[in-house]
Amino acid sequence: MRIDALSIFPEFFEVLDLSLIGKAQRDGLLQINRVQLRDYAFDRHRTVDDTPTGGGAGMVMKPEPWALALEDVLASEGSAARPTLIIPTPSGEVFTQAAAQELAEHQHLVFAPGRFEGIDERVTDWAAERFEVRRLSIGDYVLNGGEVAVVVMVEAITRLIPGVIGNEESLAEESHSDGLLEYPVYTKPAQWRGRSVPEVLLSGDHAKIAAWRQEQQRQRTRQVRPDLWDAWLENHSADQ
Ligand SMILES: Nc1ccc2ncsc2c1
């Protein structure tokens, strides 16, 4: 997979050179290009924003630097396939594990995180003629920009690429991978500050342990995320 991450603060993406995502790049499973948007602003101050047309507070990101940067990405695109342009925005569809799993199948993802009050809307319309455009939100709260959302989405997506995390089996048992929250985990010592590991986990009975873990997932999901629990029940009504 190739990823292009465009921003006026590309330093945010240096964290992706760490740990498993960094190793995946070194192993050739992944290529992440960081692009400085200001390299596509050619006035003396390399301006990327301007006042909102129609008035209002703050500043809006100018369209031209984005179009020039995205055209360079397209020019360097090796395959005939249209790259997927992900615009992180609080007004987008919610990014979920299902979205991460779908996007992990794509060969080329381009991220265009805005700052200020957002990017001139015409960039989205222009890009839709050249990319598959997805406007995605990581949740309902206020951020100063989309760069941290890019880091969240890149980690969630790229960890699903075969070979990126050593233990592929663990993927199947994680929160949201099967629609349920994950079960509680324990390790040694069996007794810690007066607290014991659940007996069943010491039984060696793998069937009992699996059943206990499944029940823990269901209880935790029902208590903490009734929305997920209702969806899970709907999808598993035949099992009940
Ligand atoms: N404020 C805010 C909230 C969610 C979100 N997702 C992608 S960019 C963004 C910005």
How would you describe what is shown here?
Belongs to the RNA methyltransferase TrmD family. The protein is an alpha/beta fold and 240 residues long. The chain has helices spanning 19-26, 63-75, 97-103, 122-127, 147-158, 168-172, 206-224, 226-235, and strands spanning 2-7, 31-36, 49-50, 60-61, 84-94, 108-111, 132-137, 191-192, 195-196. A hairpin with a 2-residue loop joins β8 and β9. α3 crosses α5. The longest helix is centred in the C-terminal third of the chain and has 19 residues, at 206-224. It is elongated, with a radius of gyration of 22 Å. It starts with a strand and ends in a 5-residue tail after the last helix. Residues 88-90, 137-139, 141-143, 146, 149 line the site of 1,3-benzothiazol-6-amine.
